[in-house]
Design goal:
Blueprint lengths: L1 H5 L6 H7 L16 E6 L3 E3 L2 E3 L3 E9 L2 E13 L2 E9 L12 H16 L4 E5 L5 H4 L5 E6 L2 E6 L5 H18 L3 E3 L4 E5 L4
Parallel strand pairs: 6-7
Antiparallel strand pairs: 1-4, 2-3, 4-5, 5-6, 7-11, 8-9, 10-11
């Protein structure tokens, strides 16, 4: 069932046209970039300067110069009742068109709509930022300095670990809250029910 949903060459254009305007930041014009959402299946690794950590995903693309580029991704895995979002990541380029969008909410909303079309899925889940591997070990985003028995993370861009973790909380927990997900203390996950039962 999941492979059928994701086998579309690209995410349904009618849905993209419906979703993108809802998540353009106030005062910005996103139209020239021809944003699209496409499915991602089966490869873990680097795509357009973003490393996929999951087998399944959605990617936000746009026309940049003469080609389509991946700007941001949502990685997920199937779980018993639906999908669990495990990765929300964008390119670090400050000039990227992704800056015009609330891209995290856009991609999570697209996954919710995709799950609804699947009819058998009951919920979409998002892991809390503090439960991601990258929250406490931002490998690849920094260098490590070991002094004595302690490890010090030296983040690129002169951010402290606390600033980085605050960004992660905004990205995962803030997105979930903003889209109406409810916290499930038992599972330590944010849950968005699609249908009862």
């Amino acid at each position: 069932m999941l492979d059928d949903l994701l086998s579309l060459e690209s995410f349904p254009r009618d849905l993209v046209g419906e979703l993108v305007p809802k998540f353009v930041k106030k005062g910005q014009d996103a139209e020239p970039y021809d944003f699209a959402i496409e499915s991602h299946v089966d490869s873990i690794g680097w795509v357009d300067l973003i490393c996929w950590d999951t087998r399944y995903g959605l990617k936000l693309t746009a026309r940049v110069s003469t080609r389509r580029a991946t700007l941001a991704i949502l990685g997920f895995r199937p779980v018993e009742r639906g999908f669990l979002v495990e990765q929300l990541q964008a390119q670090g380029d400050k000039q990227s068109p992704v800056r015009y969008l609330r891209w995290e909410r856009l991609l999570v909303s697209a996954l919710i709509e995709l799950a609804r079309r699947g009819e058998v899925y009951r919920e979409v889940q998002i892991q809390a930022a503090s439960t991601t591997t990258w929250f406490t070990e931002p490998v690849g985003l920094c260098s490590v300095k070991k002094e004595g028995g302690t490890i010090q993370w030296l983040l690129e861009g002169k951010r402290t670990l606390e600033e980085y973790q605050a960004d992660m909380k905004r990205r995962y927990d803030g997105t979930a809250r903003g889209l109406g997900f409810k916290w499930c203390e038992d599972k330590k996950l944010w849950i968005y029910p699609l249908r009862s039962g």
